[in-house]
Recover the amino acids of this structure.
């Protein structure tokens, strides 16, 4: 990353940076649901949605510095909500959809959200946790994109899109202004909330753009990871800014994942070590089906060379598996950088 890029990270909020694309074709499919190809957003549509969410959140009373919590599986619109929340000057936080009432209540106490947006399958847990925390039902919206809202007294998140548009909220100092709360591992006790700045998010995503510019293949990404995890931080913002099509799975399913790689000729994807080691055992994981893959990033735990070799045997000779090392508090720290393939247990190169 050049000094000019570092200056951008220090002086630009993540939403303005994300929607500062110089790419062509800004009306083509960009954020795509692989389970329903007709469901997609272009760069321009995504930008309009974010501007509408900013106005809607402000109309609802969300102020700069407030927190908004999402409790949902992944979705193209989940990622738009993140940018809308941050673009309103608020702070995004997300909870794991598998959390129990106790875990959700703990997360709410940590992050103190003024609004919670919840997918129907998680509503009962979230409502009970919100009551324990002291959040009124009126502060809960239903993310009813895939299932109907089961409660007549709860409003749909779509009300946020019906108030017009607003510009992105400019932040006074991106290096210190908090954009999100990410949970740490909770090695000693319950998970803690790390305060993530705008500059952190811009710097992480900028690296993922910079290295893609000179790649000798068309970038088509597939992700299934939870957007609230730090490993996922750079994926969607960098894809939007670069106008690289990205297919966003609701959650991981081995057959659907492998079918999507082949069907959409995916060139880049992301996974934790557990999937890295299980994937080669699938009958769908064949060299033919995996032939489009050029780069795989693996993060969340260690992935020594011996655990990578079975999947390497299914990939084309030019493909590489990049192990990412980092921390929630500081993001991606080291990894391999194209076209340098690391066939050892090195941690790779420090990222800029």
């Amino acid at each position: 990353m050049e000094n000019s890029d570092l200056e951008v990270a220090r002086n630009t909020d993540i939403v303005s940076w994300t929607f500062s694309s110089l790419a062509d074709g800004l009306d083509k499919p960009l954020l795509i649901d692989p389970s329903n190809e007709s469901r997609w957003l272009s760069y321009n549509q995504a930008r309009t949605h974010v501007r509408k969410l900013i106005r809607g959140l402000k109309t609802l009373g969300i102020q700069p510095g407030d927190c908004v919590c999402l409790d949902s599986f992944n979705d193209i619109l989940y990622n738009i909500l993140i940018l809308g929340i941050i673009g309103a000057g608020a702070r995004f936080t997300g909870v794991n959809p598998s959390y129990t009432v106790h875990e959700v209540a703990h997360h709410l106490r940590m992050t103190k959200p003024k609004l919670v947006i919840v997918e129907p399958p998680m509503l009962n847990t979230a409502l009970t946790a919100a009551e324990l925390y002291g959040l009124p039902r009126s502060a809960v919206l239903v993310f009813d994109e895939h299932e109907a809202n089961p409660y007549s007294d709860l409003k749909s998140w779509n009300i946020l899109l019906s108030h017009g548009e607003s510009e992105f909220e400019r932040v006074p100092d991106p290096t210190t202004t908090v954009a999100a709360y990410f949970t740490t591992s909770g090695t000693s006790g319950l998970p803690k909330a790390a305060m993530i700045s705008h500059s952190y998010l811009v710097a992480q995503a900028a690296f993922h753009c910079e290295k893609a510019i000179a790649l000798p293949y068309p970038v088509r990404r597939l992700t299934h990871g939870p957007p609230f995890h730090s490993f996922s931080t750079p994926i969607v913002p960098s894809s939007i800014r670069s106008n690289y099509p990205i297919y966003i799975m609701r959650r991981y399913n081995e057959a659907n994942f492998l079918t999507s790689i082949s069907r959409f000729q995916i060139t880049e994807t992301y996974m934790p070590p557990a999937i890295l080691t299980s994937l080669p055992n699938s009958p769908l994981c064949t060299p033919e089906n995996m032939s489009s893959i050029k780069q795989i990033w693996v993060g969340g735990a260690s992935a020594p060379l011996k655990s990578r070799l079975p999947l390497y045997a299914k990939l084309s000779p030019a493909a590489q598996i990049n192990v990412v090392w980092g921390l929630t508090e500081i993001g991606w720290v080291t990894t391999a950088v194209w076209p340098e393939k690391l066939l050892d247990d090195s941690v790779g190169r420090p990222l800029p």
Q: What stands out?
A: The chain has eleven helices and 17 strands. The longest strand covers residues 178-183. The two ends are 6 Å apart (CA to CA).
